[in-house]
What does this fold into?
Amino acid sequence: MSTATSTPTGTGREPGRKVAHKHSQPSKRGRVQQRWLPWAFLAPTIVGMGIFTLLPIVASIALAFFRWDIISAPTFVGFDNFAEVVQDPTVRVSFLNTIVFVVVAVSLQLGLALGLAIMVQEKLPAWLRVFFRSAFFFPLILSAASVSIFMRYLFNEQFGVVNWMLSLIGIPAVPWLTTPGGSAAVVILVYVWQNFGFSFLLFIGGLASIPVETYEAASIDGATGWRKHVYVTLPLLSPTTLVASVMAIINALQVFDQPYVLTRGGPGDSTRTAVMVIFESAFQRLEFGQASAIGVILTLIIMAITAAQFRLSKRFVFYQ
It folds into this structure.
């Protein structure tokens, strides 16, 4: 009896375990499905990214080395397009305008978003928080061109509402869109108003993730009022600030709609941006090679700034 139920010697495995292990192995069809089914689901996304993202990038880089006006065949010119755009004073002014725009607009956007996020999160009741979150995010879903057309009427020197309101308190009409300083201020104001809602929502999420116990501990240590924000909120919010600043700078470097609709880059070249020059080179002068060269330079600048932000973030970003 004992001989019939004993485990066979030499194998080291029980018969029952052998059967279970055999049944746990997937069939050949199952192994094929496990290997290829995820790729089948990912295929539409991969194909879409290849056609609509990677292919245009590669084509733009290649086109930067050719002279092409759509009508005639492209001619290989090497780095001539890059040399010409670097020597073009309009391109240099547009890049300088873009950098100034990024510094001013992103500073205002992040400062306004952070201040309003702290105020809404701490000072207002729950139902008002929902209202302001929706109200501040609403401009972002509007068309930038439509908003710019509307703002163009608001800031009109002769019949604009802004100058009418200023006249009520005795301030003479301001030539908002016909002077370099006024037009630049309007472009920045409209851009910040329409885009700060995204940064605002990021900061709201970051503030909600800070533990209440941290503020309680800071209060016990004597921190009150703005000291809590300086020593608790800002350090713990630094990862969110990094993400918000990276996205804000990338978007601001590609600004096009607001200056194009509001001022057409004028007066002179005072509000002309890098993307506006790309558009004008490609679709107004049919210089697609030069437009691609400017695009490549702008892309390299964006990549360099983004890399520098992540490099510097090791010193200023604190993770809990």
User: Anything to note?
Assistant: Residues 28-63 form the longest helix (36 residues). The chain is about 70% helix and 0% strand. Strands lie at 66-67, 75-76.
